[in-house]
């Protein structure tokens, strides 16, 4: 049983289900920052503030304040788009990548332990059910956006 691969698959679906709990165990400010770092990382290292706000469920004001703090810490860089000067692009920096990777490793390790404690059959069932719940949420959100 490859619990590491199973844990990584689980975390992908768990993030969809519990966006705001991605940084659970961290203080409230850090939770939001970790969520934003994780989202930017999942987008290939670059995203715009409006997209970050809508996809993470954070208000645009909270997102802007958070990005300012994260830029001050050196975790992200905000620059105007070369193709559209009105648009701001947020890029994760190398220190931001390292923090995000460390968090992913910690979460993966804890998830491996959790899945291992369930045993093979229950671990597979749990991840299958989590995936189904995540897919249902995505489908429901898409239907709600269409009207």
Automatic annotation (TrEMBL):
Give all residue intervals belonging to the HTH marR-type domain. Answer: 1-135
Q: Which Pfam families match?
A: MarR_2 (PF12802)
Alphabetical list of InterPro entries matching this protein: HTH_MarR-typ, MarR/SlyA-like, WH-like_DNA-bd_sf, WH_DNA-bd_sf
Q: Name its GO BP terms in alphabetical order.
A: response to stress
Source domain of life is Bacteria
Q: Which PROSITE patterns match?
A: HTH_MARR_2
- Show the GO MF annotations: DNA-binding transcription factor activity
- What PANTHER family does the record tag this protein with? HTH-TYPE TRANSCRIPTIONAL REPRESSOR YETL, TRANSCRIPTIONAL REGULATOR, MARR FAMILY
The name this protein carries in UniProt is MarR family transcriptional regulator
């Amino acid at each position: 049983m490859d619990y590491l691969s199973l844990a990584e698959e689980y975390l992908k679906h768990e993030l969809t289900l519990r966006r705001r709990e991605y940084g659970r165990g961290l203080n409230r400010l850090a939770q939001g920052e970790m969520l934003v770092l994780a989202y930017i990382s999942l987008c290939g290292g670059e995203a715009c503030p409006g997209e970050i706000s809508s996809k993470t469920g954070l208000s645009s004001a909270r997102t802007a304040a958070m990005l300012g703090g994260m830029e001050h810490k050196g975790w992200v860089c905000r620059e105007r788009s070369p193709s559209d000067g009105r648009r701001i692009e947020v890029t994760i920096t190398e220190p931001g990548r390292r923090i995000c990777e460390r968090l992913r490793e910690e979460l993966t390790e804890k998830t491996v332990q959790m899945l291992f404690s369930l045993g093979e059959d229950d671990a597979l069932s749990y991840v299958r059910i989590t995936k189904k719940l995540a897919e249902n949420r995505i489908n429901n959100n898409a239907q709600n956006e269409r009207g």
